[in-house]
Amino acid sequence: EAIDPETLPQPAQCQREFAQQASEALFEAADAQIKAGGFERAAMALGCAARSVARDGDSVSRYEWVRRRGVLAYRQQQIGEALGHFECALGLAERNGDDAAVAKQLRNIGSAQRRIGDYRAALRTLERGLQAMRDGNDPAIGGTLSNIADVYRDIADNKQAERYYREAEIAFRRVGDRVEAAHVSNSLALLA
What we know:
- Helices cover 79% and strands 0% of the residues.
- With 192 residues, the protein is mainly α.
- The model has no long low-confidence stretch (mean pLDDT 91).
């Protein structure tokens, strides 16, 4: 991801909007705005963070910046753009040797591929992420299992969808995430 300084908000504007200019604080501000649907302010926070990311050259900060740009684009229904950011973030995570981040980006990429209708690629990507999570004993495996089930549901392979939904439900219950377990139960009911 190239950072073009000409496209970034002016430092004075960043100071007015976000008194704190440290990357991590701006990432947190972007996360909060994305969650609340404040996409313009999230984009501004990420634009302000880009200045320090470009200046510091920290590969972990660059990964976090690119990943969040992907999440923002995904939430704005700009799936093609999100996919590009997620693929870039995956490359950074792989170069950083961060297995958890690699698994997260494989899940994000698979989700974007599903949204654009590339089910075969989505399954390959999500299965690769699932294997990485299993290899790392990642307790957050439920979301990836549920995403795989969603793809199988989309392609009308109900038997496989049910299998993955059931495994996802168990994984969510194991970590005490009753809300996500309930969502999976709802998906199972719709599948039935």
